[in-house]
Amino acid sequence: MKYLIVVDMQKDFIDGALGTPEAVAILPSVVEKIKGFSGKVLCTRDTHHENYLQTQEGKKLPVPHCIEGSEGWQLYPEIAPLVTEPPIDKPTFGSAALGARLASENAVAPIESITLIGLCTDICVISNALLLKAFLPETRIVVDAACCAGVTAQSHQTALDAMRACQIEIENA
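The chain above was modelled as a monomer; its predicted structure follows.
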């Protein structure tokens, strides 16, 4: 089985509180990647609460975003209808629940590959790619660079280079 992990393609990261032109620009490629993927598609959803500014992340990034139940928390309208499974809510950059789930599924039937796409390359994509590499060290982990965007173009490239150094395959860089 092949998996596609769509990381945090939420309104706040595309054209909301933390949106960027780069995030908007990858949206058509992400939609096409999901539509053309032959395998299982899972999404993560950055999930914060009203106390966000009191959290460690909120103190370091004082921009409320992805507050559970808000419009910005939702998967982007072009992405949501393409997803058949409920998103995996995650309160931090990497999802331990995602790693545990895929490790469990791999124990039943070996996973051929896991491809990650989404936002932001330099925060949540890299965190989940490395986390999955730790949970599944013998599974092929791939990041499709054309379907990712970072906070900046430079931080996007730095994250791709770091993942490559950790034996994560980078496609379309």
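The chain has six helices and six strands.
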